[in-house]
Amino acid sequence: xxxxxxxxxxxxxxxxxxxxxxxxxxxxxxxxxxxxxxxxxxxxxxxxxxxxxxxxxxxxxxxxxxxxxxxxxxxxxxxxxxxxxxxxxxxxxxxxxxxxxxxxxxxxxxxxxxxxxxxxxxxxxxxxxxxxxxxxxxxxxxxxxxxxxxxxxxxxxxxxxxxxxxxxxxxxxxxxxxxxxxxxxxxxxxxxxxxxxxxxxxxxxxxxxxxxxxxxxxxxxxxxxxxxxxxxxxxxxxxxxxxxxxxxxxxxxxxxxxxxxxxxxxxxxxxxx
Length: 273
What we know:
Layout: H1 2-15, E1 30-35, H2 37-40, H3 62-70, E2 73-76, H4 84-88, E3 106-112, H5 120-131, H6 142-166, E4 171-175, H7 194-218, E5 221-223, H8 225-228, H9 257-271
Helix pairs in contact: 3-9, 5-7, 6-7
InterPro entries: SEST-like, SGNH_hydro, SGNH_hydro_sf
GO molecular function: triacylglycerol lipase activity
Active site: 37 (nucleophile), 254
């Protein structure tokens, strides 16, 4: 009954939603956004006023868009480069762990997390650097990545359980990562061999599977962004993510404005089910 009440209150907000700045929703339902760069939105203008520069937190990331649409009081602690450990145990660059933003009055929590645990974007950048013929690219330890997948689900479950402990009435929502690369053949601006592409696609699938399993085991909601965004990868005609080769100021292999808007729509739809 408690979770049903939370859903009904969110539904009421959706029915009466208006596009207002997040700051104007100070009396709205408290919403905490946690996660890595796919929540923070590096490279998307403009930075959230007063936010730590190290996090590269955009005022047009999906938490900001969602909060504005639904009139939610947003506390955004997402931060580029974050891992599950940065949510639960140790913050980045002197910041507190993200979980500390969750308080008993929180009613909605979203988290896009786990990609950095398994070096998802890092390996994409390394492989693209290597295939481009650049130097100083580093290496990808596939064995270490595969080993981390063995514990990733439990790490994600720990995130959901920590939210429940701190905010028993909060609705916990895992938001998957956008699809980044196509499944078969790369394109100009996405320099990956077939073998590299296959490995990166496997990371995307296993990351989504781990997220769904963690959501199921903890009674959380999962927004299945990965399959929903296929056909909008970096090589598509309507990309929701950037290529490896990007204009100045943009971040390779990360969401663009269209991607963040799409994720916000997907989360909003999930909240109405």
